[in-house]
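User: Fold this; tokens only.

Assistant: Input:
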Amino acid sequence: MKTTLLLTAMLFGSQLAFAHNDPTISTAKIAELSAHRADRLIALGKIDGAFVTRTETIEVTAVAGPAPVAYKSIVSQTQPQSGQPIQLELQFDHDGKSLSFKVLTGGIAGADMMWSPKNAGELIENGMHYVLDNSSNATIAPYFKDFTKLVLVKGSLAGKDVGLVQVTASSQAKRLNVYVNLDGTLNSVAVEP
């Protein structure tokens, strides 16, 4: 009886030891969580507030190293006239929980794009919400599952200024363009022609 109980406990315990992989966590979700995390780190006074106003690029890679790190994200501010932009490295586990952060050394501040009324972080989050909310759509699914990078640029659509979130996926030759009105509402979405 003791042997059966011990074997059952060991089997149950070994199943809990394996990493939990949440199927809703993808590199696209990590990009959206990166924008959230940068905002939270600013609120806690851990990083400079320019990361929310000057965010231009978020790149996410899956990490095939030792647990618990499963994803690495690089949040970059706007590109300066010369040199590298200021960058924030974030690490996440398989469930999307933030594990660590560090501001990478050697970066130079770039231009402030003067987003208003929403800031760059909010425009990115709102643009990525479209990708996350429509991940079952056949056109959007590759950008959810195979997300590699996003770039936020100022754009114009039908004579109206918009934030253009350009989403790149490793499995797609063309980018997904998510047009976000400057108040943060979704304008439209299109795959590049």
